[in-house]
Design goal:
By secondary structure, the protein is of the alpha+beta class. The protein has twelve helices and 13 strands. 32% of the residues lie in helices and 16% in strands. Strand 1 and strand 2 form a beta hairpin.
Length: 360
């Protein structure tokens, strides 16, 4: 009885205190979304975060040494850190490289939500029979889901250009779903899947369904066989904020298919546990990297939070989303080291410094 009395008093005190704005347990900070037009974007001072501000200059030195051009950290949508190097500014455009893959997966989800694509359908339903050089029975095993999960079974080491999307370049290596390989060619053909399913250009569909709604700038531009997105760093941060809010821009649902969104940010197959739908996942017991068939033990980026999901591109184009910390982190620039692949030692080095600053 005595215990119940104290619990009742404690609960009443918290309730009364919150009403008077004096409670030691403050209400969670609401998520902020910048206006879709103009340059307005709320900031949050480092002094209000509880982070170790004294370590930030060392972070800036590190970023500059690693050929960084732009670096942004959002917490609950507000800008806590925004730093540009050299002649690069907030209005400068830069390429996302393979970080754009995550945006493509999101767009495919929208097309499925609208009943225009079913990712379980065979790819030839959208591209026509003979889009590969495989026997028809093997080609028919490949679905859109296999393109999203890098498990088409097509040979990812075709000379002279593994990115080639012409049928003679698309050669059988294994049955679809039995081999994971980071292969740009089948990924790039998702552009044609979307165009044929929607009846409009890839850029138009993307602009209508994502870019214009959340206030991004930018354009998909072809470079040989690859379709690469270019935008400002803040536009990348906007897409990160959309992912952090699980497919909604404030109260506007953009990808309202929760099953698809959850599948995009969850292990999509058992071959590479650290890969969803064209999205990298941290905190898994093993991972694979581009160009190798080795399964490596441990989380992909040990210094980073386990729940982090990432859009990662060549030459260290990075978009990190950390739901537990309500963070979005953007890094754009030239390669931070010798390794030019989507995953590099830079990821863990950077998160070692951010971990010391943020204190998670």
């Amino acid at each position: 009885m005595r215990k119940l009395f104290f619990l009742t008093v404690f609960a009443f005190t918290i309730f009364s205190c919150r009403k008077k704005m004096c409670c030691p347990f403050p209400e969670p900070e609401p998520m902020y979304f910048p206006p879709v037009t103009g340059n307005e974007w709320q900031t949050k001072p480092l002094t209000a975060t509880g982070w170790n501000e004294s370590l930030v200059p060392d972070l800036y030195d590190f970023l500059q040494q690693k050929n960084t051009k732009a670096f942004i950290v959002l917490q609950n949508g507000r800008i806590v850190i925004e730093k540009y190097f050299g002649t690069f500014t907030a209005d400068s455009n830069w390429y996302w490289a393979s970080a754009g893959k995550t945006m493509t997966a999101f767009l495919v989800g929208i097309a499925q939500q609208e009943g225009l694509i079913n990712i379980n359908n065979k790819t030839s339903q959208y591209l026509g029979a003979g889009w590969t050089s495989l026997p028809l029975a093997k080609e028919n095993l490949i679905t859109v889901r296999h393109q999203l999960t890098m498990t088409t079974g097509l040979d990812d080491n075709v000379a002279p250009d593994a990115d080639c999307t012409d049928p003679p370049c698309l050669i059988y290596k294994a049955d679809a779903g039995t081999r994971w390989a980071y292969h740009n060619a089948p990924y790039n053909l998702l552009e044609k899947v979307v165009e044929n399913a929607t009846g409009t250009t890839y850029n138009n569909y993307f602009q209508q369904k994502i870019r214009n709604i959340i206030g991004m700038n930018g354009l998909w531009i072809h470079s040989s066989y690859n379709n690469v997105y270019w935008s400002t760093p803040r536009s990348m941060a906007r897409f990160g904020l959309l992912l952090l809010n699980k497919g909604k821009w404030e109260n506007t649902p953009i990808l309202s298919d929760n099953n698809y969104f959850n599948a995009q940010v969850t292990s999509s197959q058992s071959l590479n546990l650290s890969y969803g739908y064209l999205t990298w996942l941290n905190g898994k017991p093993s991972f694979m990297v581009p160009t190798l068939q080795t399964v490596l033990p441990g989380p992909m980026i040990p210094n980073a939070p386990a729940d982090m999901v990432s859009a990662l591109g060549k030459n260290d184009q990075k978009l990190y989303i950390i739901p537990s910390q309500k963070l979005v982190v953007v890094r754009l620039g030239d390669a931070a080291g010798i390794t030019q692949q989507a995953i590099s030692s830079f990821d863990n080095e950077l998160w070692g410094k951010l971990k010391a600053i943020i204190g998670f």
